[in-house]
Amino acid sequence: MKKNSIDFIGIGAHKCASTWLWYNLRSHQQVWVPPQKELHYFDRSANYPSTCELSTEVFWDRVFGLSSVDALWRRKAIRNLAGSVVRLDIERIRWWLEFYPRNFNDEWYLRLFENRRVACTGEITPAYSMLEIPDIKRIVKLCPDVKIIYVIRDPIERAWSHLRFDAGLGKIKSLSDLDEVKRYIDGDALTKRGDYLATIRNWLAVVPPERFFIGFYDDIKLDSLAFLSELSAFLQIDSGGFPQQNVEANIGVSRRTSSMPSEVEAYLAHKYINDLEELTTMVNSHSLKWLQVARERLNGSSLPFR
Beta strand 147-152 with 120-124: parallel, antiparallel or unpaired? Predict the structure, then answer.
């Protein structure tokens, strides 16, 4: 039996199949992940542009708090506990009772993972890709041997998926309003989540490279089983433990299929072209193809970027 052991943390990137990854890991008999995909424990600071219902640390302050974040926490607590009771899912009820009616602190966080009879425990919160070095050091101090999983995709395609997702949430009024879309592209939420270079540098400043896995969304699309086999070797679990139906499932695919307007495509290419040139020297692989496509997008644009 393992106690207070967290073997891995998935840090995104956002809109890079993190839900699919969580779904597969939770179905593996040698792995345990929380029933809630994103815990958002380490990105609770106002420094990070992510909505986090864990920002109020004291339980009774959340119960009676008037903020929108506290209201969100209450809604989710009622929904998750009630759903587990209806399904008579005793294990999940116990976990939610550990998760909700507590003060949030490091001891609480570690207790969420203790007493799991599996080879590997961890969580996935894509917002952790935005963490600054002091918060990364805090994680490593709390979980000294933790392994980090970071999956990336063409940053232009990732940004467009991010835009469509947030438009579906009402955060963007119209994807056809180029000025509004440009402002959102240059805002903190989209910029920080798509800054692969900063994420890799910050994490590798604290975590040894042998414990930092960089995967590619393209590989998941090309051969998801091969991707999971590579990840299994990194986590030291059985590569044959993933149910086939979960491996092939299109988990988290957006229902919004609108194509990227050429103006947005060119604006994003201009935003990421320099990063892609540097990323190619850092990780190569699919990033070289992303760079070539970005150059083609810029060359085919009539917008005066250069």
Answer: unpaired
Structural domains in the chain, CATH included, are 8-54+104-299 (3.40.50.300), 55-102 (no CATH)
Threshold 0.90, pTM exceeds = yes
Distant-in-sequence, close-in-space partners of 243: CB < 8 Å, separation ≥ 6: 27
Burial annotation 214-226 (CB, 10 A radius, 16+ → b, else e): bbbbbbbeeebee
- Using the structure block, give the residue that is written with the tokens 């998760």: 99
Those residues with Cβ within 8 angstroms of residue 115's Cβ, 6 or more apart along the chain or in another chain:
1, 2, 3
Residues 190-237 have pLDDT tens digits of 999 999 999 999 999 999 999 999 999 999 999 999 999 999 999 999
| Dist. CA 26–CA 255, nearest whole Å | 24
d(Cα 101, Cα 111) in Å, to the nearest integer?
13
Secondary structure tally for the chain: helices H, strands E: 15, 5
- Cα 166-221-126 angle, rounded to 5 deg: 40
